[in-house]
Write a structure and sequence with these properties.
DUF262 domain-containing protein; 52% helix; alpha/beta; 18 helices
Length: 430
């Protein structure tokens, strides 16, 4: 890790740093009115009780000579600048930043109105006292690093207040940095893809679905997705990589699918492909977000939509049932990604029974149970799909589907096994 430059500076000096920039990988501005009023009241109380008030820590990444990216503290710093603007006579350079995200614009507008009302109640003397105290007596620790990865690592280690970075944040930052030299519109388009999906959906899509599908398809074990696993989604930068033979198809695709805001032809992504750094990664995540919605919102096939109601039963709120449903959806996504609609109607019942077999045969199913179940002898349907060229070959899945025992009596699920003559009742000849 590069050596951090640490200092303690008054807020007036920090907000007037001309190089301050909110990088595109940052989350939208999310502070609510209640957060802002709490900060204002804390400062007002400190004026009466403390000669100096420590607001917190800001972590910056120095990028080149003219840019100081805000890695940690964007929410507080943006709020402080709005406060100072409403106090008058101060227009920090950062106030000219463009907040493209609709959520940021909405929160800034609401908070600015609340701050203006709060400031309006101050007498002229109180107004000047508050402003001078904020500029000169409020201070923060500033930490500057010269490497983005080091800045994030330092942030995770020091962040005792606020929300720690998720692995998806690190991936967003990495792939935006891989777009160095690209047009701002292209970077902004990629950041928008990410932000429109939303934090919770990104965590689920990448960590629960794509990460595990990729590892299971290679016969590897997959635990919870952490920042130590993000290399799975780092691949090749086609602008910088040598002309390796395995990259030739991807470089050819670049010629047929150039960047365009109005592009209608879909890039031929595969879940298990080499990750292409930069714009293609963002497009890939957007592609699988749409695929997941398309598969399970009922538009792809009426029969498939009706069939999926077998996974909706009174006890489906239990953790084990949720994990089982995720396993089933993962298998369907893997199938559709590889074979599309070919033989789809014949095979999704097999994938359903394969996933729910572990639910019926076990009293308890945990998150890691799915990983163990996938890796039982000759039971990895993800690797089978990856190594199979023809979906008709997947009929072998049926050979391992007969129930050996029943520990969870889920009528709607067992109905599928009974219909396929694979239920325990049939096994016993009853």
């Amino acid at each position: 890790m590069s050596k951090p430059i640490t200092d303690v500076k008054p807020i007036g000096e920090i907000v007037n740093l001309n190089q301050l920039t909110i990088p595109t990988y940052q989350r939208p501005y999310k502070w609510q009115v209640r957060h802002v009023l709490q900060l204002l009241n804390d400062i007002e109380f400190a004026i009466r009780t403390q000669p100096v008030y420590r607001i917190g820590t800001f972590i910056f990444e120095k990028e080149g000579e003219g840019v100081l990216n805000i890695v940690d503290g964007q929410q507080r710093l943006t709020t402080l600048i709005i406060i100072l603007y409403e106090l008058g006579d101060l227009v920090p350079a950062l106030l000219n930043a463009k907040f493209a995200h609709v959520e940021s614009q909405k929160n800034i507008k609401a908070n600015q109105f609340a701050i203006a009302q709060w400031v309006a109640r101050l007498s002229p003397e109180e107004h000047n006292e508050f402003k001078n105290y904020l500029l000169t007596q409020c201070e923060a620790v500033t930490i500057q690093l010269n490497n983005l990865a080091d800045a994030f690592q330092f942030f995770d280690a020091q962040n005792s207040r606020g929300k720690a970075l998720d692995p998806t944040d690190l991936l967003k930052a990495f792939h935006l940095r891989e777009m160095e030299g690209k047009e701002p519109d292209e970077k902004r388009c990629c950041a928008n893809i990410w932000d429109e999906i939303g934090e919770d959906s990104l965590k689920s899509l990448i960590g629960t679905y794509l990460y595990r599908i990729r590892l299971w398809s290679r016969g590897k074990h997959a635990g919870p997705f952490t920042k130590d696993d993000i290399d799975e989604f780092k691949g090749s930068n086609l602008d910088k990589s040598p002309d390796y033979s395995y990259l030739i198809p991807y470089k050819l695709n670049e010629q047929f699918f150039p960047f365009s805001n109005t592009q209608t032809v879909t890039y031929p992504f595969q879940i298990n492909q080499v990750i292409i750094n930069g714009r293609r990664f963002f497009e890939m995540i957007g592609h699988y977000h749409q695929m997941k919605k398309h598969l399970f919102d009922g538009t792809i096939s009426l029969a498939f939509h009706e069939f999926n109601k077998h996974s909706e039963y009174p006890e489906d709120y239990r953790a084990g049932d949720k994990y089982t449903k995720i396993l089933y959806k993962s298998a369907v996504m893997c199938y559709f990604d590889r074979f599309g609609l070919s033989e789809f109607e014949q095979n999704y019942p097999l994938l359903f029974m394969w996933a729910y077999k572990q639910r019926i045969e076990n009293i308890s199913v945990r998150y890691l149970s799915s990983n163990s179940y996938v890796h039982k002898e000759r039971n990895n349907v993800f690797r089978l799909m990856q190594e199979t060229l023809n979906p008709e070959k997947l009929s072998v899945i049926r050979d391992g589907l007969r129930l050996s025992e029943v520990k969870k009596k889920i009528t709607s699920v067992r109905a599928i096994f009974i219909n396929e003559n694979l239920d325990l009742i049939e096994l016993n000849g009853k």
